[in-house]
Fold these 2 entries.
Entry 1:
Amino acid sequence: MRIIGSISDIRAIVRAQKKLGKTIGLVPTMGYLHKGHISLVEASVRENDYTIISIFVNPTQFGPNEDYVKYPRNMQKDSQLAEEAGVDVVFAPEAKEIYLDGFKTYVNVEGITKILCGKTRPGHFKGVATIVNKLFNIIEPDKAYFGQKDAQQVAVIKRMAADLNINIEIVACPIVREHDGLAMSSRNTYLSPDERKAALVLSRSLFEAGEMIGSGERRKGIILAQILKNLNCEKLANIEYVDILNADTMGEIKKIEGKVLIALAVKFGTTRLIDNIILEV
Amino acid sequence: MRIIGSISDIRAIVRAQKKLGKTIGLVPTMGYLHKGHISLVEASVRENDYTIISIFVNPTQFGPNEDYVKYPRNMQKDSQLAEEAGVDVVFAPEAKEIYLDGFKTYVNVEGITKILCGKTRPGHFKGVATIVNKLFNIIEPDKAYFGQKDAQQVAVIKRMAADLNINIEIVACPIVREHDGLAMSSRNTYLSPDERKAALVLSRSLFEAGEMIGSGERRKGIILAQILKNLNCEKLANIEYVDILNADTMGEIKKIEGKVLIALAVKFGTTRLIDNIILEV
């Protein structure tokens, strides 16, 4: 497995593989890899001849008061995990390789980026869409893999790909959870032992909502109220949002029907976690 | 020569040509072709194995009070001119093929789109960058050709290509002029005979400015004043802007040095014309 920092080098590698008729899978990440990321790599290795993982903590998707500087990084461990999972090349550029002097161009998916995480993280999805667009242009993969934990990110990327005629298949992979239910996230490392324990309220609330819907409950207000009740019982939890939406369009729904996304964001101390479930009703 | 309306058809054609090892040149246009467009086609035919011209009057780059509906169209004549110039395929999609229901994604080059034409045509360059980005993703050409008459458009596209790592060479071709100096434009067809005559003041003013600089004048204010004096002498001319900028960055300059762009926009009746010259000092 090779680790590449330059755009021209990774392009040469991709060109050579394509000349051999190989298909390319891309797994864009910010590193500090966990089993969620590895599940994306495994899907890519299964479905493509050649798998590239990008590891780049993208400054433009962090707000001024967010955790860009302290975001966890461990290149050595990441390389080892990537190699074990079957990655062919790690693309790990420096920020100055990605953002030229005088950089001024952004890709923005309007509307869909104003809700949920977009409300409290203005500019976040503009940064995400832009870096993913750039990685797509650099690597030109056949397929690209994203985790469903970032449900809104998946919707933004799919919308961008459709709107800009990007000829890459966007694959969303299921959330991978710890044995006790906590959704895998690089930010889980920030949690104190008490917060780590408290954070279980997220998946517990979502699973209970899923059970209520499974038992026939179709009133959105009742489901939301039950989730909020659960979250409010947990003293360390600071709710940012809970919402129930159409899972494909991220549009508002009045009652529980079709493909439904229940998504939430909650802070534990200074650590902001997100989680969600998707249900077919 | 074929005329193609569907994205999947044009993609199949490009794929087949690339499989044969052919290079692809793209000339994006809004049709109503004149010799300026044809010079772009000729450059593409010279430098590529296969040339595609797109003809698409792009609604998202017109403001609500602009000339989208009345913009001149003549597909039959365009096809004939394109074929004579050596075009292999005309890509002429309907608007609904290009803009899906729920379209929400825009590419925006910030800063550079706020000056000159961007001031009076808010959203124009966002529409331009977005459609060109889409055409690039649909056709995936090796090179793409743009007319230097739209100097700011060229700067926006070059900036977008660099910023988003678009692996396509952007080629700017010189302005083509009528025998009397008027820059070729599809919008010249709007001009009444009197306006057509009056419009010569544009190129005349620019050429005189070029002569002043050629004779050693380096004071921006003096050059601008002379151009404005000439334009103001023409009763039918309504000045929108005249400016002298760095030709590469579109940044402000204090004195005439380096690669300099003199650009202007002037209305004659309801017809808005632009023109410019680039000088190396």
Entry 2:
Amino acid sequence: MVYLTRREHFNAAHKLFCENWSEAKNEAVFGKCANKNWHGHNYELFVTVKGEPNIDTGFVMNAKELSEIIQENICERLDHMNLNLDVDWGYEMQPSTENVAIWIWKELEKHISECKLHCVKLQETDNIFVEYFG
Amino acid sequence: MVYLTRREHFNAAHKLFCENWSEAKNEAVFGKCANKNWHGHNYELFVTVKGEPNIDTGFVMNAKELSEIIQENICERLDHMNLNLDVDWGYEMQPSTENVAIWIWKELEKHISECKLHCVKLQETDNIFVEYFG
Amino acid sequence: MVYLTRREHFNAAHKLFCENWSEAKNEAVFGKCANKNWHGHNYELFVTVKGEPNIDTGFVMNAKELSEIIQENICERLDHMNLNLDVDWGYEMQPSTENVAIWIWKELEKHISECKLHCVKLQETDNIFVEYFG
Amino acid sequence: MVYLTRREHFNAAHKLFCENWSEAKNEAVFGKCANKNWHGHNYELFVTVKGEPNIDTGFVMNAKELSEIIQENICERLDHMNLNLDVDWGYEMQPSTENVAIWIWKELEKHISECKLHCVKLQETDNIFVEYFG
Amino acid sequence: MVYLTRREHFNAAHKLFCENWSEAKNEAVFGKCANKNWHGHNYELFVTVKGEPNIDTGFVMNAKELSEIIQENICERLDHMNLNLDVDWGYEMQPSTENVAIWIWKELEKHISECKLHCVKLQETDNIFVEYFG
Amino acid sequence: MVYLTRREHFNAAHKLFCENWSEAKNEAVFGKCANKNWHGHNYELFVTVKGEPNIDTGFVMNAKELSEIIQENICERLDHMNLNLDVDWGYEMQPSTENVAIWIWKELEKHISECKLHCVKLQETDNIFVEYFG
């Protein structure tokens, strides 16, 4: 079993805010992230798949195809978007790094067939990242 | 003469949009950056000052003081803000990386007295940065 | 289960030296790290916690709180310190990256309650890092 | 159990090409990587070993010795080489990042005795890396 | 005057070799870089232009257009190529980082019209880069 | 004229302290950097030379020779040293990043003959670096 990771990125705006909380509570919990006019990040996305290398190609999966799957299903929907306004997550969702990573996993899982999705790592800043293994 | 650089950062939302242009022209020129619901970046800011090192300290300028000047005058006003809505630039300004760097220069210059401001470098993504030397 | 990682850093001096060994043996084993006048590093610290994201916040744990816990319990005690002279480890300890990482785990574990500490990764240089999982 | 990682690097040329495929199929699968005149990469290699820190040294393994083992057994054989022409892999092998990582594991395993080899991570570009755990 | 830099990259093979020198002299001067079977690098390319920001856009130059000019005129000709065999430099040229940077300058200069080309920075490894200012 | 930069590094301990000042003044000016038991850094050193590329080699200067000059004259004297105790600067010197960079310039200048030394850049942390141009 070999693990292959492909990095992609997208830039997006978001805010962290609970509509059913007071502004004071929002600010106490989320701090500056609750600014109602949004802020944003350069998100770095690392997608890891696992499998046996193919005899002919030596590939667990063609990294170019993996890149295209991530581009089409994730980056085109999130890049230069507002994560609170522009994305239909399929359910009501706070756009925290954790929740966006879980959503990315679910979207990618449908499209990885020749090997297995292993990890979605989403980096919000140089100081904060999350990992989800399904 | 020695050049001292201090790095700071801030996260912000913005969009690039000319109000007196059609939506089509805005999209043709700015592409995805014109998304009216905003997007955002992790901005890296490098401020360079120049001068002679002090005999006792060996410092062109105390890097901790330089950091505080940048924090108070720049980061506190831009971090987790919407660069189109939340910042009073003093004049109407497209919040491009170029224009924000020039504004940062003007704000910092007032507060650097013991040596000279040399360069403001503002990095929007790993692939794009600007430098302004006054 | 989602894994959240927060990066912090501290700068410190140390030496690697066994008091009950000869200088020759110390130099044979530790090389330049045995210099009795100390050397130092910029340590990068990555702390990973794991748990279920909260429904309201989308957080495994508030990254700002995690940062404060690391700052108060680790960085304030190690930053700009001499790891051989200035830190009371609670027991006699060679300040190798491995041992410092284990100590950081033990200190942090007491303060992480709403989710579980998963990993302490401590990077001594760009070429050397250790990971401890408890 | 503590995990210690040492980074090394090497620069090499390679191409991805199946001799028993048509040029058209090679290009369809490998794209520009099939260029018969070769291309190349700066490979970053991260080797992780695991074990209990030694009481005296605090080391899972002496990082300098680990570095020497990697240098002698891997870098001296791969650095500034053509991975298709200059390396005797011991068997016919497509020099994909996956296959090279597996080969590195097998070569290193023979030389790690005081602790256990845990992971070989090989990074081909900033966007692609693989990990092999034996 | 503001300076705008755009980063692109390409992967290529090359060797450093003087045909009219003996193998011994080639090895003495170029070391492992003279391996006749080639080696390769991940090249990072930073192109800097300078000018006054446009009133409407705030741009010295549209970074997307700058990226396209670099892609079409440089990366498509160098990426995944052998710098000794696959590129028609227009004259006989040792493919050192210095010479490739000068060639990139000459090719880009023809296509930068709305502002001025200022610098081509070409990074061969993390440890070596060159800059050319025309 | 082409500019060639070579990166090297060294790890060292130091403190910033004026013997003829009170402890209170030392702490007011230098903060934690005045800890009398030392702290330390991973220093990154970038040395830039400038000249015309040689017709045969395409080199401004052989980067391997530049590396050896830096290693022999700088790194062997500073790596794993205490910058206050172990280095004979030739005069009394506060080991600030600024002063160390100036000293490195003076030591290197004697050994660069085939082209000209242009810049010594010394990085103390990811957030602070200095540049000296002679």
